[in-house]
User: Which sequence fits this backbone?
């Protein structure tokens, strides 16, 4: 079998100088018997090599769907990308044939998932599932693929790699399984790694180890990392930039320190304020009242308006706010971002 | 013959999958409400329901369908062709085929319902006991289930029915009913057991227990209602299976006897002369098949409607 | 794994004793005149009575009788039929035909079920799927007591495609129609289980991972989904083999095949107690052994169970 890597390099239109990943105005909807769910409504992301972009948001805000759309593994039907561009080094992935798109996966853009136990096939050994990548994409023999598999397990610091390569996923602990997933994703040296809630299912100490491993591997390879999470604590350590999503839109995008120091969107602000703090012991916890909207019935105007502390009539009646340029490199979709920024933070 | 276990553990339907997301606040949806809505839209459900209704009416009031007497047989009419009076013609003994088929519904339905009720009660007690008490009780009861299942159904039925039908004078109705009742409860018990185990671990049961509810009340008011849906499905399907089983036993000569009217007996008797006349074989078969089909389809449709995996 | 085996063997032994005891009790317990029951319709002389009483230990308590019977079983003596023949001989006579029939059926059923089930599972909601669902529903519901005679009438007698009855030493072709009839009872469930299994596995997380690895659709389905999906089906096929071997009584009766079920039915009708109990004991053993093998297969196929 031919070496697929060579074929990628002659993917038409690839411009090594272009932005590594550039997602513009992405719209994804799910057509079901109960109505159309608008999962992503105009999302924009950019990623540079070596950069870590965190996509933050509650369950159902569209972050996983975005990731799946970028990878091209949406369940379709019922999911459909209705608008937008996903440009990898200048090539719009949405316009590629399925064959070409398949070659991009794992080779150029890879993904790891939340629950490694269900994300790995239970009836095949870890060595088989790792080696498969080399056999299918690089045409390697079984023996060579197995050797590479052992090397990969070593790379993610799984002890006794040679012995463990014949083990099944359920024989590993949670943290080890996640390392196997990371090894699988990085096997073909992709340029972008999307990590969809990689540590949510793990306990805190293991979380730290896994995030540390990811950071180290990213640095070694100068890889772009998209980290999808709802955990603000994890993000603070690791991310360079944060995109906050709500109801399928990116409501705020900023470098990490700026967002924590002075958020420009009421939702971000409310999220930050809801983090329990030790020095607020004894006081009532602050919550965001209300619930995120059903994706089949997103409110008109700004989708956050039913729950917003800064809401005015214009939020309900005018079209949704565009991404205002707050500073260079920062946007916020709020008509009143100046007020939000001006308010003194309680932290 | 339909394998009870097989029919009861079946495939999902063809509903599309709704992505996870917050539920609308305004209209509370219950599982039963959703299930009924889906049932109403299912063509299979309506087809089966109508069939079941027709068969039940036929069993209760056979004279609505035919005025002929199924026992008024005269050899002079042997194999006489279909006519205005007997729309299917006459069989080997000169009996009206249509009349026999219509009247045969009664025995089938009676045996079907009674045996299913017996099996249901036994299954309920076993399943509830096994699931609720767990531990040693569960171990013993499950071993009993294993033993009953260790003998292939038809073999056990034949042996048991023969034993129970010791009195040659009665027509064997109770022998067959008891046989099917005593052998058919295993799937119902298993289904009830898993539902009970699933419900038992729910928080609302723990809450009720904390408030002082005793085992009886817990079982009756809290656990049982939630296990009823799949139990009813199993019983509906069991009804169909039992009707088929009665016909099979009667066909083999071990079921209803004497001059009882049964589809199984009719099929048996028609066998020897099938080269001469196919009507005595085909019509009772059609009636039997449609009846069994109706109940099994009904149970299937209800189960699909209640399957939470399709929500 | 070892503990699992031991546990299953103990269960098997318990079930075996329980099942055979029930059958023995049903055939022999509480008979008014057990000797008359033993010989059936024929008259009995006092001398015969004494001889039979001694032979069958009829003057001893029922449980003792059962014990003697079990002892015989464990040494391979399955008793003697009232017709005079050894039960084990009759079994060796009848077994091959039934086994042939059963294997033919399973082959037909499994092939159709797996192929159609996989296609249905992949294209759920499609035309093929809906048709298959309805067809299997009808097949599931049709009792064999309807299917067998009608098939014989339609294809054996009217259309003449197959011989309407098989007999002793039937050719494979003569067994084909009964095998197909028997297969229909198994095909419906096997197909539905395959379909459900494939549909469920297609939705699982590891399929998403496999796609994210850039694997072709053919590989995702052919390698990843299939291996997981077939586990419940293969075990079901094993169970079905066990069921079919237990004697397709109705089918053998309709098509006049002198197999296990046929002989068993005749034994029951003629109240041939020893024959019935002997045959059923053997069948229970076969059934249990097949179920044990199926469980072992399950462990062999699914690594998660292996390492419990």
Assistant:
């Amino acid at each position: 079998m031919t070496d697929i890597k060579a074929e990628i390099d002659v993917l038409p239109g690839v411009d090594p100088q272009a932005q590594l990943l550039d997602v513009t105005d992405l719209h994804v909807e799910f057509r079901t018997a109960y109505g159309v769910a608008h999962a992503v409504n105009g999302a924009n992301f950019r990623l540079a090599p070596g950069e870590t972009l965190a996509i933050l948001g509650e369950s159902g805000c569209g972050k996983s769907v975005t990731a799946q759309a970028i990878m091209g593994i949406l369940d379709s039907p019922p999911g459909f990308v209705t608008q937008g561009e996903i440009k990898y080094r200048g090539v719009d992935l949405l316009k590629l044939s399925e064959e070409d798109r398949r070659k991009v996966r794992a080779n150029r853009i890879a993904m790891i998932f939340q629950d490694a136990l269900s994300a790995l096939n239970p009836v095949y050994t870890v060595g088989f599932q790792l080696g498969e990548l080399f056999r299918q994409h690089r045409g390697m023999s079984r023996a060579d693929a197995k050797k590479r598999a052992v090397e990969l397990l070593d790379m993610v610091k799984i002890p006794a790699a040679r012995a463990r390569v014949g083990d099944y996923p359920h024989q590993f602990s949670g943290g080890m399984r996640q390392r196997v997933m990371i090894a699988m994703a990085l096997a073909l040296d992709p340029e972008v790694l999307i990590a969809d809630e990689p540590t949510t299912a793990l306990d805190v100490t293991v979380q730290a180890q896994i995030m540390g491993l990811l950071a180290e591997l990213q640095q070694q390879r100068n890889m772009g990392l998209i980290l999808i999470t709802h955990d603000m604590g994890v993000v603070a350590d690791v991310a360079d930039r944060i995109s906050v999503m709500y109801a399928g839109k990116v409501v705020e995008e900023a470098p990490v320190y700026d967002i924590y120091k002075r958020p420009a969107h009421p939702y971000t602000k409310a999220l930050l304020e809801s983090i329990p703090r030790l020095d607020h012991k004894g006081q009532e916890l602050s919550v965001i009242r209300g619930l995120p909207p059903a994706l089949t019935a997103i409110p008109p105007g700004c989708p956050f308006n039913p729950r917003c502390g800064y809401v005015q009539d214009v939020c309900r009646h005018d079209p949704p706010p565009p991404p205002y340029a707050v500073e260079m490199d920062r946007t916020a979709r709020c008509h009143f971002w100046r007020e939000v920024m001006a308010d003194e933070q309680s932290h | 013959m339909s394998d009870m276990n097989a029919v009861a553990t079946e495939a999902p339907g063809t509903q599309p999958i709704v992505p996870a997301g917050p539920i609308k606040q305004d209209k509370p949806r219950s599982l039963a409400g959703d299930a009924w809505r889906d049932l109403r839209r299912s063509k299979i459900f309506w087809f089966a329901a109508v069939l079941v209704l027709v068969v039940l009416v036929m069993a209760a009031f056979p004279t609505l369908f035919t005025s002929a007497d199924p026992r008024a047989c005269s050899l002079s009419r042997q194999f006489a062709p279909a006519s205005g009076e007997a729309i299917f013609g006459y069989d080997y003994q000169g009996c009206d085929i249509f009349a026999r088929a219509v009247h045969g519904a009664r025995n089938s339905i009676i045996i079907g319902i009674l045996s299913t009720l017996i099996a249901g009660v036994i299954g309920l007690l076993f399943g509830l006991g096994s699931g609720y008490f767990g531990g040693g009780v569960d171990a013993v009861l499950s071993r009993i289930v294993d033993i009953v299942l260790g003998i292939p159904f038809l073999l056990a039925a034949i042996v048991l029915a023969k034993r129970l039908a010791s009195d040659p004078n009665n027509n064997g109705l109770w022998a067959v009913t008891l046989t099917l009742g005593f052998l058919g409860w295993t799937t119902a018990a298993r289904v009830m057991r898993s539902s009970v185990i699933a419900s038992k671990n729910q928080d609302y049961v723990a809450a009720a227990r904390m408030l002082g509810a005793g085992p009886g009340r817990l079982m009756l008011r809290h656990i049982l209602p939630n296990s009823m849906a799949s139990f009813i499905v199993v019983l509906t399907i069991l009804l169909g299976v039992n009707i088929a089983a009665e016909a099979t036993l009667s066909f083999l000569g071990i079921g209803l006897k004497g001059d009882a009217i049964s589809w199984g007996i009719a099929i048996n008797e028609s066998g020897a002369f099938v080269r001469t006349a196919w009507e005595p074989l085909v019509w009772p078969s059609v009636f039997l098949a449609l009846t069994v089909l109706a109940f099994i389809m009904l149970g299937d449709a209800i189960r699909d409607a209640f399957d939470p995996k399709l929500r | 794994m070892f503990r699992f085996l031991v546990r299953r063997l103990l269960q098997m032994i318990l079930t075996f004793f329980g099942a055979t005891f029930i059958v023995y009790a049903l055939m022999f317990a509480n008979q008014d005149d057990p000797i008359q029951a033993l010989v059936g319709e024929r008259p009995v002389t006092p001398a015969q009575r004494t001889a039979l009483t001694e032979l069958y230990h009829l003057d001893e308590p029922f449980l003792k009788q059962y014990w003697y019977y079990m002892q015989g079983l464990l040494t391979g003596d399955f008793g003697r039929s009232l017709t005079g023949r050894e039960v084990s001989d009759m079994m060796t006579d009848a077994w091959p035909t039934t086994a042939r029939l059963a294997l033919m059926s399973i082959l037909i059923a499994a092939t159709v079920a797996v192929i159609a089930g996989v296609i249905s599972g992949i294209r759920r909601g499609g035309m093929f799927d809906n048709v298959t669902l309805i067809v299997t529903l009808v097949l599931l519901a049709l009792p064999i007591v309807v299917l067998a005679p009608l098939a014989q009438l339609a294809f054996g007698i009217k259309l003449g495609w197959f011989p309407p009855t098989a007999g002793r030493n039937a050719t494979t072709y003569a067994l084909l129609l009964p095998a197909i009839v028997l297969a229909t009872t198994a095909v419906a469930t096997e197909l539905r289980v395959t379909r459900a299994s494939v549909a469920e596995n297609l939705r699982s997380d590891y399929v998403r991972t496999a796609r994210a690895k850039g694997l072709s659709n053919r590989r995702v389905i052919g390698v990843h989904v299939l291996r997981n999906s077939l586990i419940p089906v293969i075990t079901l096929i094993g169970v079905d083999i066990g069921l079919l071997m237990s004697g397709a009584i109705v089918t053998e009766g309709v098509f006049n095949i002198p197999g296990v079920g046929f002989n068993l039915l005749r034994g029951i009708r003629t109240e041939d107690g020893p024959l019935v109990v002997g045959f059923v004991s053997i069948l229970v053993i076969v059934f249990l052994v097949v179920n044990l093998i199926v469980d072992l297969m399950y462990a062999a196929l699914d690594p998660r169970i292996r390492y419990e």
Q: What stands out?
A: Chain C touches chain B through 58 residues (CB under 8 Å). The mean pLDDT of chain C is 83.
